[in-house]
Specification:
mainly alpha
């Protein structure tokens, strides 16, 4: 089991090194070349996610006494993955110095202010994107809870309906028994009078 985990670790190391290299190159590219590299990195990030899932499954199979060490290693790999994803997001919207100068013009003073303003706006946009993603996750969790609550409610209604039928049948039997007791009482009273 641990040999599989270690093989996954090696694959993880190779893939993350490639991704880090490519993420550093993305801001320096433009056009189709940048698009292709972004798609390639996206695909590799998906491979890393799958590797982490495999590692997680392997850790669950490891005996409990050894599991703690592997869990901490897996946790650090997940943190590294989160950092890679954040770096990737930033690199997709970052521009190289050449592209930046082309967009802003080559005059130093005002372009420096514009550059600072653009960086602030970019940071603000990244923060808003992360907040939006967190909100989306919370909404999904809330929706899931609502669906589960609805299922529980339907089960309760079904149980109540069944209980109601049982109570109605019991009442009918009680009425029949009461009627039969009344008849028996009248018959016994009649027999006693004779």
């Amino acid at each position: 089991m641990s040999s599989d985990f270690e093989a996954y670790e090696q694959d993880f190391g190779i893939l993350t090194a490639e991704i880090t290299n490519k993420v550093g190159r993305i801001p320096k590219l433009a056009g189709e070349e940048k698009t292709q590299l972004v798609l390639n990195v996206d695909k590799q990030l998906e491979e890393v996610r799958e590797l982490l899932e495999q590692m997680d499954l392997e850790v669950r199979e490891i005996p409990i006494q050894s599991r703690g060490m592997y869990n901490s290693r897996l946790k650090s790999y997940k943190q590294e993955m989160d950092k890679l994803e954040k770096d990737f997001k930033r690199s997709r919207i970052a521009y190289s110095d050449e592209v930046r100068n082309e967009l802003l013009g080559a005059d130093g003073g005002s372009s420096e202010n514009q550059l600072i303003k653009l960086r602030e706006e970019r940071a603000h946009l990244l923060d808003n994107t992360e907040k939006l993603e967190r909100s989306s996750r919370r909404l999904e969790a809330g929706y899931q809870i609502a669906v589960e609550t609805e299922q529980v409610g339907q089960e309760i209604l079904s149980n109540l309906s069944t209980d109601r039928e049982k109570i109605q049948k019991a009442r009918e039997r009680l009425r029949e028994t009461d009627a039969n007791l009344g008849k028996s009482s009248r018959i016994l009273t009649g027999m006693l009078r004779r």
